[in-house]
Amino acid sequence: MSSYIALFGNPNTGKTSLFNNLTGSYEYVGNWSGVTVEKKVGILRQHGVPIVDLPGIYSLQPLSRDEGVATDFLLTEPCSAIVNIVDASQLRRNLHLTVQLLEFGKPLIVALNMVDVAEKRGVKVDAEKLSRCIGAPVVPVIARTGKGTKELVRAILSLSEQSGEREHVAIDYGQDVEAAVQKISEQLPDDLLASKRWLALQFLEGNERIHAYLQTYMDIAPLVAVRDEAQQALGRPLAEHIYDARDKWIVHAIETSTVIFQQKPLTLTEKIDAVVTNKYLGLPIFLTFMYIMFMLTFDWLGSPLADLLDQFFSGPLTEWLSKLLTLVGASPFIQALVLDGIVSGVGGVLVFVPQIFILFFFISLLEDSGYMARVAMVMDRFMEAIGLNGKAFIPMIIGFGCNVPGVMAARTIEQPKERLLTILLLPFMSCSARLPVYALFAGTFFAKNQAIVVFSLYVLGIVVALGLAKLFSSTLLKNESSIFVIELPPYRMPQALTLWRSTWDKGKGFVRKAGTFIFGGSVAIWLLTYVGPKGIGVSMDDSFLAVIGGVLAPILAPLGFGTWQAGASLITGFLAKEVVVSTMNIIYHAKDMDLLQGAITQHFTPLSALSFMVFVLLYIPCLATVATIRKEAGSRKWTLISIGCALTIAYTISFLIYEGGKLFGY
Amino acid sequence: MVLTDLRQGQKAVITNLAITNEVVKQRLLHMGMHEGEKVCVKCVMPFGGPVMVEVDGQYICLRRKEAACIGVR
Ligand SMILES: Nc1nc2c(ncn2[C@@H]2O[C@H](COP(=O)(O)OP(=O)(O)OP(=O)(O)O)[C@@H](O)[C@H]2O)c(=O)[nH]1
Ligand SMILES: [Mg+2]
């Protein structure tokens, strides 16, 4: 049985940073609570030991879905040792979790992280003394730079060599509680993975997950009786009593082991917050940030770069390839497949890589600086009005990059209703895969106001999403109160390396999709244009693709783009939205963007182009998003509702835009 | 007095947490908002929006509705 070394710790203490350092992988890091929402497995470098990164938790009683992952891990999976990451600048709060993990009874090492932050605040922790106090090894580290990880690895390895359960410090909770623990332990079955004392204490504390867990093994009534009795004897809530006992122990440990050499508040964070979360400036600042992000992506920086890349693909690259193909004596069929199919299809999407990377850079900046949680705070009042809370804004921003991690990020939202709502509205967040479509159409028809037009599309997505949220929260999903509590991390200077890695990690997905999905899609689409009911090498209008797209054409006609070409690209766009552009490139035989733009001006008017962009924005979540929604919402019904809503809304709005626009004479 | 009576920058000591929503209460407790702790109001969002407070070096943001249930002295 392979058994894991598990990383536990409070949210935002650097677990994933440490995990990345230990395993050499790159998992998602960000400066807010709730970045990691799933269990991630890696291998300790050079030692082959499996190691698990988990979502951050404050205590072992889960309040949200991501926290449940961590508690369930303890209950159901074998782990040989626990590495508890503790934020040295927030010792007291962090040690409450440490105590509970110690009680769990597995070998434990404390990785004392953020010692740099603590020192800046004027706090110095003596690892040696702390270790003696809590009865577990303590290794100071700086997960961000990797300082101290060597020592930590050594400690981990020597710990897992020791066999058997370790002697650990037990807190004395007083006569009443200890008696109750004793009584409960006696009744627990012997074959459980977790230690009995720990189970008993968690049960007494009122941990519902443990309650449910025990219920599957035994009759819970006698345990409840013991709990009530203890409560009676104490005369105050058990949870409070247990908390106080731990707190006393912790305060003592901190007093013995830390020196406060200087009382320094978080001056930098306060100064930034004075502006950024200012009563009146908060919202305008956020909007300005978004505006600059869009201008840079679509106008100031992104477009010129995309043009350069396009020139390269259509010029030198195509020339080299065609020379090469002639040289090796490729048949005309292969030549056409490569040049008309693959280069047009894949290249047509790859030219947007610069724009997508700029967008991802800004999202990474938001994530790593500590601003993300502030955005949630600034937006909360508004979100409350539509039946959500500010935390839902974080998945929405992540959704601008890609909807899939956005849907996952909704796990941190505590209330099931608000979480479901957030998942449902996420597909309307305009992800980066839709960006090529906008860039193409807005660049063709609205060259002068490109950034504004695209910005309005993003806004339209948000407005539709929020409108839908309001609708659902006041009809189908009523009766559950909305709540909002969030921890605001101190600002941290984003490091160039982290930013780059985070940007690259997101952008990589896009490039990889171009190499796999879009490559395969391009080949398939080209083949569909090459063969038709009447044979091979037919003209495009007689091809299978035209037949398939033609089915949709009459339905789409009232929206202004009733051609088989539009129908075909929308169908293929369900795979991934950038495929819309690939398909058009292939269908219109366009070697570069200029030619494609020329071709689409013949089939679209500015009005129908706008209607088309709106339709692409809203019409359906892509395949990967649908799968994720199905998994996260855990319901086929809601997945279908999500798709149905998207189609209906897209059709209605595009219809209104096109027909309305015609009335006004456009 | 309750937390919402404090002005920006004012400090006080928490005397009781009479929050009815269990999840919110648990969250605040986990983040270190306990009776006897010092709090300082850092900022208040407009239109009845949330408030940001500092407890033990930790910044926490909560809604005004809940802040109004936290007694301070
Ligand atoms: N100054 C400093 N910053 C650190 C250190 N370790 C991590 N960070 C930063 O702290 C933030 C949180 O790091 P993560 O690794 O995402 O934290 P996490 O514990 O995995 O967070 P969740 O997954 O949300 O629970 C990031 O911005 C890191 O760059 C450290 O030792 N010193
Ligand atoms: Mg993490």
Structure overview:
The complex is a heterodimer of chains A (666) and B (73). The radius of gyration of chain A is 29 Å and the shape is elongated. Chain A starts with a strand and ends with a helix. Chain A is α/β, with parallel strands linked by helices and 666 residues long. The model of chain A has no long low-confidence stretch (mean pLDDT 89). Chain A contains 31 helices and eleven strands. In chain A, the strands form three sheets. A six-stranded mixed beta sheet of chain A has the order 2-3-1-4-5-7, with helices on both faces. In chain A, α7 crosses α8. Helices cover 63% and strands 7% of the residues of chain A. By secondary structure, chain B is α+β, with helices and mostly antiparallel strands. In chain B, strands 4-3-2-1-5 form a five-stranded antiparallel beta sheet. The longest helix of chain B is centred in the middle third of the chain and has 9 residues, at 22-30. Chain B is globular. The mean pLDDT of chain B is 91. The A-B interface holds A 58-59, 61, 63, 89-90, 92-93, 96, 121, 243, 247, 265-266, 269-270, 273, 277-280, 282, 373, 376-378, 380-381, 384, 390, 414-415, 481, 483-490 and B 21, 23-24, 26-32, 34, 42-50, 52, 56-63, 66. β9 (485-488) of chain A pairs antiparallel with β4 (58-62) of chain B. The structure holds guanosine-5'-triphosphate and magnesium ion (MG). Magnesium ion binds next to α1 of chain A. Magnesium ion is lined by residues 15-16, 35-36 of chain A.
Percent of sequence in beta strands of chain A? 5-15%
Count of DSSP H/I helices of chain A: 31
CATH domain topology of chain B: SH3 type barrels
Low-confidence stretches of chain A: none
Amino-to-carboxy terminus distance of chain B: 6 Å
Stretches of chain B where pLDDT falls below 50 for ≥5 residues?
none
Domains of chain A, number? 3
Radius of gyration of chain A, in angstroms, nearest whole number: 29 Å
